[in-house]
Amino acid sequence: MGVVVIGAVFVDIKGYPNELYIPAGRNAGRVTQVHGGVSRNVAEDIANVELRPTFVSVVDQSGISDDVINKLNRHKVNTQYIRKTEDGLGTWLAVFDNEGDVVASISKRPDLDEIGTILDEQGDEIIKNADSVVCEIDMKADIMKKIFALAEKYHKKVYALVSNMSIAVERRDLIKRTDCFVCNLQEAGIFFSDDYEGKTPEEMCDILKVKIQSAELNEMIITMGSQGAVYASSDGESGYIPAQKVSVIDTTGCGDSFFAGVVIGLTYGKSLGEACAIGTRLASSVIATKENVCPRFLPSEFGLDIDVEE
């Protein structure tokens, strides 16, 4: 069943200025609408490395949701565990400046309760056959507990990412049970109750080595935007991966692609540092485009020897 990804689907509505962006002003520009959501993006990113992930999620009854499922199917994501509910589709509205960075956003989260029902009814078959499990750590606590119980029952590694750190920080007990936790610099500051603004990658690497020991985490990666990413594990592995230099068009989805690359690497036998390098390459390919997900790659391009079922 490949990597199993569990989480939400969003529709991303994005606005780009034609001229110099003026905060609080009326900016003429263009507006695009694309399929989004952290987990949905990760599932498609994994599929774009010619792997075959399974996506467990919910959508609504609209034609947009049909489009979401059809696109995932075209990319060879297993969508048999996606269900339609009344309020199953989220919306993210964002405005970008001339550098491709988000300057304002509003999101409407979907109702994910049906995911708990899916896990009750089909969780054993889903997790038993998984290569690994990916989840948004800030989903409802009862859903998260079901995921971890099933993963531990079948001895599957769990990789956690964040869409809302203010919620995730309350799940420290669950984060300790993950095999690798990934977040950005600002989120790391919230998680560790500290301010890391202005820290160099070298400084953050030293800080992270100490922090994961005191917090009893297995592995953690902190992304630092244009400065790259730092990583550390409880067994002493640590390091820094610089970002690749590319022309920035749109940063949406680059963190999701980085996480997908990390999951791919760790699931299929790479070290933590090697997994970060895969994530960095996928992220750079997204930053240079207007897409939320990476383009097509072959597993062999990342040194992965994986038999892919057609």
TrEMBL record:
Molecular function terms from GO: kinase activity
Residue ranges of every copy of the Carbohydrate kinase PfkB domain listed in the record: 3-289
Annotated InterPro entries: PfkB_dom (IPR011611), Ribokinase-like (IPR029056)
Top-level taxonomic group: Bacteria
Keywords of the record: Kinase, Transferase
Keyword Kinase on entry: yes
Claim: Kinase is one of the keywords in the record: yes
Protein name: Pseudouridine kinase
Species, as recorded: Sharpea azabuensis
